Amino acid sequence: MNSHVTTNAAPLPFIDIAAQRARLGSRVDEAVTRVLTHCRFVNGPEVTELEKQLAEFAGARHAISCSSGTDALAMLLMAWGVGPGDAVFCPSFTFCATAEVVPWVGATPVFVDVLPDTFNMDPASLEAAIAVAERQGLTPRVVIPVDLFGQPADMDAIGAIARARNLKVLCDTAQGFGATWNGKRTGSFGDASATSFFPAKPLGCFGDGGAVFTDDDDLVPVLKSVREHGQGVDKYENVRIGMTGRLDTIQAAILLEKLAIFEDEIAARDRAAKRYNAALADVCIVPVVDPRATSIWAQYTIRLPQGVRDDLGAALQKEGVPTAVYYRIPMHKQPAYAQYPSAGNGLPVSEALSGEVISLPMHAYLDEASQDRIIAAVRRALGK
Q: Which residues are the active-site ones (predicted)?
């Protein structure tokens, strides 16, 4: 590792939410003011309009907004009646929310390895995990492919396995909403999809939020019931176990304004990613996008040999360039999840990636001068 230099330049943001806020300016202020004026803070008209526009954007028949991406996942498992004795298959290289919701309903998460190039669920490992679950007496019920770092999982292969094994497909597109697979938007695959509007997401609100997408007409009233305490004809009749899972009207109003500029931001993210790839491909392993896919670039994640990754992060920090590591510990090694089964081979790719990945600043407002500063700092730290 080459010696670093310390810069007096202002630290760069990892995700520049403030730049987007400045661009939207009074539009967000006015949207929030409309809600403050009509005072329908729960289930207001902006919620209905957002759900309509989200469904149109994703190419799904229905969008059901909710309180977070985690709750979106949980609502689907609850609506499908997933419970004790059921196996739900999750990649190990992901954020904990993907698997967290499975024990909530009493089911068993079974961890699956990922592919070394796209970081997404490995279909062959999924087959192995299904066999492990069956040997342990579990009933395979649901697979949750994750669109990690913004790229859709291999929906062709995973969909074929799911159909052959009668599994529900719950697409976790919390990091991938806005990307495409074979020309179709995420949110339009599987039996249903879940996404997050956490502020750091490519389409994020100013708090917590999420949504479920599905083409299943019969699933919609069940999801809405789960979202509202399991209500029946009204909120004082409870026909199932539910939750408080609504999206606040103010957040819906903000998301409507952000959705209006989302296509432009997607294009800007892709331009930034291509510049990174062109400038860094000779010094590290840069991200690979499947030719059938486009990425929303929720994160721009490179790979470096074991040990080099952390040295790079420290060197960049001294130059005012922030980095992040997603994820240092794969799910099957997390203390809270280590007792659950996995595909059976130690999930070597997930374990290797956890020691090699590091993410650089990525957002739609990453100007070329800032990006050039990041690239120069990376190359300097790596002695290139």
A: 201 (proton acceptor)
Report the C-alpha gap between 50 and 251 in whole angstroms: 10
Q: What is the pLDDT along the chain (384 residues), one digit of tens a residue?
A: 444 455 568 999 999 999 999 999 999 999 999 999 999 999 999 999 999 999 999 999 999 999 999 999 999 999 999 999 999 999 999 999 999 999 999 999 999 999 999 999 999 999 999 999 999 999 999 999 999 999 999 999 999 999 999 999 999 999 999 999 999 999 999 999 999 999 999 999 999 999 999 999 999 999 999 999 999 998 899 999 999 999 999 999 999 999 999 999 999 999 999 999 999 999 999 999 999 999 999 999 999 998 899 999 999 999 999 999 999 999 999 999 999 999 988 899 999 999 999 999 999 999 999 999 999 999 999 997
Of 131, 138, 135, give the one whose Cα is nearest residue 161. Answer: 131
CA distance 244 to 52: 21
Locate the domains of the chain by residue range.
Answer: 22-260, 262-381
Domain 22-260 has CATH 3.40.50.970: no
Instruction: Report the run of H or E that residue 254 belongs to, with start and end.
Output: helix 249-260
Residues 227/245, Cβ–Cβ less than 8 Å = yes
For residue 290, how many C-alpha atoms fall within 13 Å in the half-sphere facing its CB? 23
Candidate list 168, 201, 224, 258, residue with the active-site label? 201
The SS3 call for residue 302 is strand
Which residue type occupies 41?
Answer: F
The answer to whether 170 and 143 have CB atoms below 8 angstroms apart is: yes
Give me the helix-helix angle, 45-58 and 249-260, nearest 10°.
Answer: 40
Backbone angles phi, psi at 110, to 5 degrees: -120, 120
Tokens of 156: 């062709």
The SS3 assignment for 366 reads: coil
Answer for the pair 205, 50: CB distance below 8 angstroms, yes or no: no
* 3-state SS class at 229: coil
Name residue, tokens 């902006």. 46
- Structure tokens of 162? 């799911």
* Fold of the 262-381 domain: Aspartate Aminotransferase, domain 1 (3.90.1150)
Produce one character per residue of 346-357: b if its CB has 16 or more CB atoms within 10 Å, e if not: ebebbbebbbbb
